[in-house]
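idk why but the lab printer keeps eating my pages so im just putting this in chat instead. protein + NDP:
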Amino acid sequence: MNPVKVGLLGLGTVGGGTVNVLKRNAEEIARRAGRGIEIVHAAARDLNKPRICDTDGIQLCTDPSEVVNNPDVEIIVELIGGDGLAKDMVMQAIEQGKHVVTANKALIAKYGNEIFARAQQKGVMVAFEAAVAGGIPIIKAIREGLAGNQIQWLAGIINGTGNFILTEMKDKGRDFDDVLKEAQQLGYAEADPTFDVEGIDAAHKLTILASIAFGIPLQFEKTFTEGISTITRDDVAYAEELGYRIKHLGVARRSEKGIELRVHPTLIPERRLIANVDGVMNAVLVMGDAVGPTLYYGAGAGAEPTASAVVGDLVDVVRALTADPENRVPHLAFQADALANDPILSIDDVETAYYLRMSVQDKPGVMAKVASILAESDISIEAIIQKEPVAEGSFANIIMLTHKVQEKQMNAAIASIEALDTIDGKVKRIRMETLDAN
Ligand code: NDP
Ligand code: HSE
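predcted complex ->
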């Protein structure tokens, strides 16, 4: 089947990231969607600007309506931002029966009711996962995963720029304006950064979350909005002394009297997981009556995290266009005829770091013998502790942390260590994972 042809409006932070992700993961994306997804036409203001993506093979222009009117294009991805031109382009695409994917929370929060009504009449999809919390699939989680619940409340750190500023102020004592400049350079901030620091961006996102959680129309104008621009380093420090963190939160809560919709700086006890969400990361806590509290965490802004959500929406739209209507989401996420034969590794071939604990005779040379067995097996030691024996002449505990090594190499080394007559019993082994980003 031919690839689906997509038109892209905007080649900035998110547009560039989307081109990169679609190109880099093309094969895997096609296996999930059932068809390739190809950007064929894109618009930006200045075609001479350096880009973060390679635009080879994409027809470029400066007039977004040229892309919308391209008869080959079936899906429009709107990544221009704002609610002027972007709204016109989205409405034009819908009129032409084209599906739309957007990351534009301002547009959805303010004009979503009108946009969705027209999209429904025209039988097209408008997908907007990237509009809330960057790369976290929070719309899908609430709309689909939690569909069996009555959502009672949700609370989230939903502006990456604001959280980045608060974190840098707290951890490094940096000035507000200085950190904001860095957030702009990193592509996190909105075109008008007052949207980030005055809470407007978070209010756009909260408006969308509340509609999805409670089944109410989008009502941005009713959201109470207070930003972080008045928070000082002293406030941050005093809150810390009292055991709290200041976070900019969006809160939506259903009560008997009505629905609370508010964004403002908030003191949160530091023991809460969400109080430890730092930098550009976002997190959303959702309380469902059946599931209880659930927490979703990930990068809230930036080129590829946001592109991840845009491409996820593209895959959803393409699946709906392509797949058997009874089976739009493949059971195993990839199309049934595109499952791969990658082998599952035996534990012997898996590489991890290790914690080793052994009980050794407390006499000279024992530690050196153990270390030489590990060295002969090409296992390097990261840290080592020897605990004093509880009584003279009894055994001492040695604890070692190793760097990464294959399990079978470690098994052989442990067998050699256990064979030493200076070792008592078995070597205790616990695999270690740092779970860092690399
Ligand atoms: P950028 O400013 O980086 O990109 C906007 C793009 O739109 C640019 O390529 C620009 O062209 C193009 N553009 C603007 N006006 C016109 C016009 N009149 N005609 C043609 N092209 C035009 O914005 P982002 O990528 O950061 O944001 C895009 C959208 O995604 C916004 O709605 C934003 O709120 C949302 N978003 C952003 C996130 C982020 O981390 N940045 C995260 C989640 C959502 P040119 O490059 O030539 O100036
Ligand atoms: N400016 C936004 C933020 C982009 O910092 O969260 C992601 O929506």
